[in-house]
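Posting for a labmate who doesn't have an account.
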Amino acid sequence: MKAVAEHSLLLSTRQLRVFTSRSWYLVATLAQPLIWMVFLSGLLSGVARLPGFPAASYPQFLTPGMAAVGAMFGSAWAGLTMLMDLERGVLDRLLMSPVRRVAIITGNLIPQALIAVVQTLVLLAAALLLGVRYPGGPVGLTVMTAAVVLLALTVAALSNTLALRVRSREVQITVIQLLIFPFAFLSTAFMPEGLMASWLPTALNPVSWVVDASRTALSAQPDWPAVWLRLGLLTAVCTVSVLTAVNAFRSYQRSV
């Protein structure tokens, strides 16, 4: 386990250096949820006046949703990094080294978790300027950040799985776009469940789990059993996703 942790840290540091060297990529990743937040708050501000709307303002309602969607959109492209390593022969060189195989996957996932944390903190700070407040305090903010990280790890792991299976940038990009938009817009990120069509399966959507757990934890009187239930579901899905990515990597290893 010590070797896996050390190798994961080394590979994560390598990935983070690549990200930080691309200043425009870093700025775009952090700014994307902020831009959506401002535009949607202006576009849908009147929704907060509807009877039964569960928040005092639309930005207050939207903040947890944008944190979840921003993390999902950012981590969905983690597989492209794996594909670039594959195309450049980096992956094959790593296979010839003493690096632990699991660390090749975890070294790709850890940077996505760190980016999700920074992205969430930036969004939470910026939302204060729109009048958003957090009655749940530090505990609620910690729970929200943890839920967002679990979602980012889940999506990044599935993106790596897809990359190792299809081994094509074109297919990877097409499938990712096909999947992430429905998960985002059919969740409770942008609209409360009571105002959505009854046939939409929001209860089965991991994005909704993150958003609902975050909103509940940030409220003045959190329903903690509901929060722990959603965090438990997210942890289970995240674990399965990471194991699936590890299995996909082992299949790739056997094929070369």
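Reply:
Got it, the structure tokens are right above this. Residues 2-255 form one domain.
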